Amino acid sequence: MDDYVRLTYRGREFRLPLVAGSEGETAVDISRLRQETGLITLDPGFANTGSCSSAITFVDGERGILRYRGIPVEQLAERSTFKETAFLMINGALPTQKELTRFSVLLNDHSLVHEDMKIFYQSFPRSSHPMGILSAMVNALRSFYPELQNLEEEINITVTRLLSKVRTMAAMSYKISRGHTVVYPRSDLTYCANFLNMMFDSPVKPYELDPDVVKALNVFLILHADHEQNCSTAAVRVVGSARVNLYAAISAGIAALWGPLHGGANQAVIEMLAEMSRHGNLAAMVARAKDKNDPYRLMGFGHRVYKTYDPRARIMKQMAHVLLEKLRLSDPLLDVARELEAIALKDDYFVEHHLYPNVDFYSGIVLRAIGIPTNMFTVLFAIGRLPGWIAQWKESMDDPAWKLCRPRQVYCGPRERDYVPIEER
Ligand code: ACO
Question: Which of 190, 308, 320, 389 has a beta carbon 3.0–4.6 Å from 64's, enabling a disulfide?
Fold first, then answer.
């Protein structure tokens, strides 16, 4: 095979080098295209554009494969914990027992949030969306924890602080939004157990930790830990490329994740299923989703990369079923979800458009079973995605091919024209 592609333009031939990834995907390197030919490429939504080389996550959307650092997500969901997976994502290999113990100690040491930040929290209107609060508060962390002189120490401490504090901050925002007393982290609890305790413990009703619920939260977070160059990760890399501090870059990622076409979809799915449950007529809503003149879409269906069943959705569906059984709960929305999935998977439109349930389709059911309120769903996604954002940011900082992100455009506005004074317009 040639290791370049030929481009012919205005009678001249150019050779564009090919770059091969470790799983066989091949890219055309266009980094010198404009310099050599005067041309740029146009790719709205970057659907065909590789913005970096990355050794973190492998996704094959045609075959429904997802691996973190080479390890299938199914194995991690079954056998790992979120804390161990976070270490894997950020450091590139599973931790030894000694490394894991040290990591746990550091997470514990950094789990408290500066007391002055509580005042900030109390100033947000009660109706604020927790994602807006989280994004603002993560950005504010730089003011409370100024930069250290030693770069390596600065990065290590910032990473640990973020992983530990975001979890505390998420639980705090929930407690404050309800007017309840903030529950502090406990050193005797694991990462996920600690979060659940901070969310649900109360002075008048101690929270009883259930190992099945703790496991379900671990799996939920593992399934969200990274997904290569998705919208929020791209935001973290783009903002990070200006060499802002890590808190600011992560804050940008949280803002991007908030959108209903991205992480906000898990909340949107539950709202949609609840509406369908009230409405009853699923077929009519599926028909709406297929109507070209109607912007309505089935939330939790479709994905930019997966053109087959999202492997995370498969695990999440199974977990929703098992968890509800174990907790002896019944959720009418799970029945609606199953019915909707069955209708959509048989429908020509959804089949032809390769629209399958994505990770968000069943994740809301799992979160509801755990007791997480709907407006906190995307915050849980953000906690899960944090190790991925951090790993991607770190990788970009160490990348010898790193460049400030600055795309081009094809200008299609007016040609040069003169300024017209206001009295002559
Ligand atoms: N319901 C109905 N039709 C859909 C849906 C849907 N959920 N998703 C895509 N389509 C149709 C589009 O109308 C379009 O049809 P056309 O080609 O006939 O015009 C075609 O499928 C392609 O859609 P695009 O939006 O171009 O595909 P893209 O790859 O840009 O979209 C996206 C991916 C944004 C996720 C889309 O499928 C969607 O809006 N899904 C619902 C929101 C959602 O669940 N988001 C979560 C994604 S997973 C995550 O972020 C963790």
Answer: 308
The ligand 1 atom at the shortest distance from the C-alpha of residue 300 is 44
- Going 207 to 208 to 209 to 212, the CA torsion angle's sign is negative
- Non-local (6+) Cβ contacts of 32 within 8 A are none
CB-CB contact of 251 with 141 (8 Å): no
Whether 215 contacts 315, CB under 8 Å:
no
pLDDT digits 0-9 by tens, 368-392: 999 999 989 999 999 999 999 999 9
Residues 6+ positions from 341 with CB-CB distance below 8 Å: 357, 361
pTM, full prediction: 0.93
Scanning the structure block, which residue is given the tokens 């076409």? 261
Whether the per-residue pLDDT at 285 is higher than 70: the answer is yes
Q: Which of 228, 301, 359 to mutate to test the pocket of ligand 1 (most atoms within 8 A of CB)?
A: 301
User: Would you put residue 174 in left (φ > 0), alpha (ψ -120 to 50) or beta?
Assistant: alpha
